[in-house]
Amino acid sequence: MTQDSAVLLVNLGSPDSTQVPHVRRYLREFLMDPRVIDAPFPIRWLIVHALILPTRPRHSAEAYRSIWTANGSPLIHLSQQLESRVRERLSIPVFLAMRYGNPGIRSTLSAILASMKDSLSELRLLPLYPQYAMSTFESVVVETRRNLKLLAPDIRLKVIQPFFRDPRYISSLAELVRPFLERGADHLLFSYHGLPERHLRKTDPTGHHCLIQPDCCSTPSPAHTFCYRHQAMETTRAVVKELGIDSDNVSHAYQSRLGRDKWLEPSTESELIRLGNAGTKNLAVLSPSFVTDCLETLEELGIRGRDTFRKAGGETMDLIPCLNVSPGWVETVTELIQDESAWKEDTP
User: Fold this and answer.
1) Are 16 and 120 in a shared domain?
2) For the whole prediction, is pTM greater than 0.90?
């Protein structure tokens, strides 16, 4: 990596505040992304503007208020801390953008170009998503590519590859989990962000493997390069192996459903109920698809999920913090940026 390079970290984003208009604007941008709700524009517009936006912003605003801090959005604040700490360890510029909301990808690219004037020849893009999904990793790459082409088409773009089983990422996760196991957790639940099953079929380059072949996630296939479910399962396996724990005391589920389509199973809610009913008393929950604590971890799991588990008969549920700015994670991001083998030239 040369001095004419810059690194762009991209996370999901948050509303500017917990006010309903700000939440509505954020949800509109997020849900109108064709890789999130992957329906033709007229249908997507109708779903978002007629079915979701009239009521959901008010409920989402209440949820955001339950996790908002004096520093604002936890996701934004923690991401900014990560940017700062990684920048301190590198000799090249590091910047941060959000896929939705502020600071946006386009405005951040403009700031990069302005600050580096004519010296920038290569942009390194690191989407803060360990596993590949069209609604997360792919969306960030496509949006960055589109804006870079408009603003500075001669600049090369390189993209970090999904790091779902990179030993450094796995070790960082294991470091977070160990204290909770030592504290007496009798079960560890891995809760990943959910996806509609059709997203897996759409990103399957073979067209006949994902959710079609028996044991598709365990049977080697080129589809695994783009298969979120396979990559999530690989992350779970790798962390369990790193911790050296009994897989009988581990389960794997998917949260954050939207709409009536068939989503990946089992759902986190159903798994929390099952575990409570089965006599699990002390549960620890890890969210490996989120590297930064956000609404989905702090409110959906930490508040509603804990209540669900307790009502089903569980006693204590510890929400293991995301990687956030833990020393191991800061070092992992720094090393990933410096690892030339982790990068790939962007070829649309």
Assistant:
1) yes
2) yes
